[in-house]
Amino acid sequence: MQNGSVSSHDAPIPGSCKGRLLVATPPLADPNFDRTVVYVLEHSEDGAVGVVLNRPSDDIAPDSLSRWQDWMTPPAVLFEGGPVELDALIALARLDGPGEDVWSPVVGDLGSVDLALDPALVAHSVVRLRIFRGYSGWGPQQLDDELNEGAWMVLTADRDDVFSPDPEGLWREVLRRQGGRLAWVANAPDDLSAN
Q: Who is most buried in 74, 91, 160, 162, counting CB within 10 A?
């Protein structure tokens, strides 16, 4: 694999946004998603679930998660995964040789780690780890309707997007690498009235 490209085992599921990025079109009417990049964890006829990748918070992990701190990918803070279930914590990780019963695969070697486990059972395999507070959720056909309305661009995820070292710049980076008109959109000012 070269240049962070998606390998064949990371290929998205046909007919689903699972394993792909939802990139908010400017300006998306919902302030929860303005200029966000959402990684889709699940998308079926029952709805969709994802996490916002580009909203690091000022919060450090609570004491209950301090044992995972050494394995968190910088910036080692909690990320605002979305406006749903703000008490829920979702840990996404790339593991080297994940063991059974320690994670739930999403796509390829990316999966969700159970934070209730003793890190000693998992951490020796952790290559990257990011923890999200809350998630983004859509009911049946809700995401599909938003896609039809043009609220989101569905784009291929690069292998390192979930763990970007520059999460605040991820929205622009994802658009720039598309080239053409989408690369131009990356330069749109945050306040379109200032243009």
A: 162
